[in-house]
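[09:14] KT: can someone run the structure on this one? pasting the chain below
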Amino acid sequence: SAASDVYKRQKSIGIIGGGISGVSCAQKLIKSGLFNVTIFEKSRGIGGRLATKKIRLENQNLQFDHGGQYFTARHPSFQNLIDNLTSKKLLKFGMVILL
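[09:31] RB: done, structure tokens below
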């Protein structure tokens, strides 16, 4: 079939780690149509440090999202985003966001 012919022409790539970088990389490679991608992750699921944790507390099921402890803005486009959010007071350094 045509689909299996495309699959045979694609190169296979393995990505180690299913965190945000690994998943983003896999998405770009898959969208290019040139690669078959396999993500190798040691944990039970993908997400790396970005995850939704579920707990039971006082007869309530609670869930919360958490992510990386910090980030750096070295790329100019990311720095522009951070500057924009900071100027609109949507982000400030040392900020703890509770939703």
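[09:33] KT: thanks! The longest strand covers residues 51-57.
[09:34] RB: yep, looked fine to me
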